[in-house]
Design a protein that fits this description.
By secondary structure, this protein is an alpha/beta fold. Helix content is about 50%, strand content about 10%.
Length: about 300
Amino acid sequence: MFAAIGITERETQTFVSRFRESEVMQRTVLFLNQASDPTIERLLTPRVALTTAEHLAFTHGIHVLVVMADITHYAEALREIAAAREEIPGRRGYPGYMYTDLASLFERAGVLKGGTGSVTQLPVVSLPDGDMTHPIPDLTGYITEGQIVLSRELHQRGVYPPVDVLPSLSRLMNAGIGEGHTVPEHREWADQLYAIYARGREAKLMAAIVGSEGLSPGDRRALGFVDAFEGQLIHQSRTRRSILDTMQIGWSLLETLPRDELSRILEALPRDELTRISRTTWESRSGDDAGKESSG
């Protein structure tokens, strides 16, 4: 389910051509609202799309993904209509009920008890002037269960997907990782990669002022880790990559650092043993899943 909100004609053609090239058009429902269409339609488009998705999910038992782009255009239409109604403006001129209005859209994702279908939402928000504190991304972040932030800088450097790791988050991650889901050490592995990458990003800013020679040896190692992390772990081109492959890349990056800098990794086991457990656990889980599929 794709709900286009206030997009241009060129963007419309781009989206449609992408759907056709990926051969998903036969199982895709499009709702297209262009910038030249009446403003009120921008408020109706996501609601019509979600109603259709709920019908497919809860009546026909289909798992539906709803992509809504762009929520920024939706919020701007909300502000325009509120101004026409002479309503009292809130922050930056947006109506005070914008949080409630956005929640009425985002909270329509989920499942029904006893049902077989589901509605998953992927709302797209363009950051006005790249400002994460703008009311639109700010309120959206409070409502949703996570956010994936894309970086223009990484995109310009050819990193795909250009995910900016530090501001991205998932409030449901802990419920889907670890023993019984991925591998037991997943949380420690992720925390350690995040910590070294964050340190490297800070070192990069400091190096622009004092030069790399003015950094401590640990900061210089973290600075080099940034390019390796972005080039090997974040960048995966347009190929599919399994969680196991991703974790192996992460472990290989951590292997380049001294052991005393890996403060978030268990002291009880060496890294090669953790890698072995990771592979054994994941292969065992994959085998169980395959057995369930064949028996089903």
